[in-house]
Every structure is written in C-alpha cells, then in structure tokens.
Write a structure and sequence with these properties.
Blueprint (H helix, E strand, L loop, with lengths): L2 E2 L2 H10 L4 H8 L3 H10 L1 E2 L1 H11 L3 H4 L21 E6 L2 E6 L6 E15 L5 E15 L9 E4 L2 E9 L5 E11 L2 E6 L2 E4 L4 E7 L4 E11 L6 H5 L1
Parallel strand pairs: 4-6
Antiparallel strand pairs: 1-2, 3-4, 5-6, 5-13, 7-8, 8-9, 9-10, 9-11, 12-13
Helix pairs in contact: 1-3, 2-3
C-alpha cells in the first residue's frame, strides 16, 4: 500500500547531489517512471521509500509525512486503508484490483505450480502437483497486501512491477517459506518481462519441492477482465 513521502525533500537531496532522475532510478533499482511519480505526487510504496532512504542515507521515517486528508464520512477505521481499491473473487482464481489514477497500471496473470516428491504406500516414487492461478492489477512500483503480496499454503510471495522507459517491465519478486512463526527467504529474484508476454522462474527447496511462477504483465491494458469491468 502506498505511503506519503516528502517529495520536495527527495527532489532537493537529488539535486544537491547533482543527480538526474535517471541516475537516482539506477542507483535505487527503481524505474524512472516510479521516481518521476514519487517526485510529482509524493506517493510511494514502502519498498520504494526504503530504497530511496538507503541511497539518501536516512531512515524511512525521515521521508514519511502524515496524510492529512480527512476520512470519508460514514466509514469505519477498518475500511479507511482500502479506499480506492476493489477486489473480486472468480472461479478458478482471484481477480484483485488496487490502483489509483496517477500511475501506470499493470495487469498481471500469475500461475503457480508447487511440486513435491512423494512415495506411495507401495514404495513407488512419484510427484504431487498443485496449481493455482491469480490475476490482479496494481500501480507501477506498488506493493499492496493481499493483492500482489500473497500467501499460498506455506509460501508467501510478492511481485512488484516497475515499468521501464523502453516499455519492458522489471518484476521485483520475493519468495518466503513459513516455518512456525518464522519465515525463511527462498529468493529475491528480478525478471525483465516484455509487455504482454510471460516470464517465469523456478525455485527449489532443500526437501525436493519446487515452486514455479509464470507471470504475464501488461501495462495499461486497454480492456480489463470482465469481472473488473462489471465493478
């Protein structure tokens, strides 16, 4: 979910260092459009704010500013963080919607396959395969809980898209595995995807399991899925 940051401070510190927006995007690992959006609107995901804070040598709290906008009348506290977001569940997967108007929107189709090695009661080795499909749309550079930060059985994974100037999409992925009250990082890969084409990766665990992600990302889709259009 986006947080409000001091865009004037970020721009001032960038200019004090004689950095261009392109250079700041490069050293933070963020997209140029993300930097431009943050400096223009002051809206940033926590991951983007953390990257900026690390490069500028300050705490994230230094960048954060309080959002003084009043809550919409008649809405309770629990509803306030979800203003501007839509969510719909469809058969065979989830279609989740979490965007605002100032950024590029990225529609992502994600397929997940978990494979486990098993042995039958008669001692015959085999595989147990589970497959899930999810579809969601988020703003460029944004991480939204329960939308593109998802839990599937013992795994949790986040996929943050960063739209590049050449139209390609940098997918920043983090995969975790739960062990009791703790989570172990299985990997933090980055993929470059062509607009509208699938990219994929496979992560193997130590106990003969594998997690395969297939991700097709589309920037500013001309048509939304029927369930989203109906909303």
């Amino acid at each position: 979910m986006d947080m409000k940051v001091d865009s004037s401070y970020i721009k001032r510190e960038r200019e004090r260092r004689a950095w261009s927006q392109e250079h700041l995007a490069e050293v933070t690992g963020l997209g140029l459009r993300t930097i431009q959006r943050i400096e223009k609107t002051g809206a940033a995901s926590y991951e983007s704010a953390r990257s900026l804070a690390a490069i500028l040598g300050v705490d994230v709290a230094k960048l954060r500013v309080e959002d003084a906008r009043p809550a919409a009348p008649g809405l309770g506290v629990r509803a306030r963080p979800f203003l501007g977001a839509l969510a719909a569940v469809v058969t065979g997967g989830a279609v989740l919607y979490a965007t605002q108007s100032f950024a590029d929107q990225v529609l992502m189709d994600v397929s997940t396959v978990i494979t486990r090695s098993v042995t039958s009661s008669t001692g015959v080795p085999g595989q147990e395969i589970g497959e899930w499909k999810t579809q969601f749309i988020v703003d460029d550079g944004t991480l939204v809980p329960n939308v593109n930060d998802l839990r599937l059985k013992e795994f949790r994974f986040s996929i943050v898209p960063h739209v590049q100037d050449d139209g390609k999409i940098l997918l920043e992925i983090a995969v975790f595995e739960g062990h009791g009250n703790e989570e172990i990082v299985l990997g933090r890969p980055r993929l470059i995807a062509l607009n509208g084409e699938e990219a994929g990766l496979v992560i193997h665990t130590d106990d003969a399991r594998s997690l395969r992600l297939g991700i097709k990302a589309q920037v500013n889709p001309p048509r939304l899925p029927p369930t989203l259009r109906a909303r």
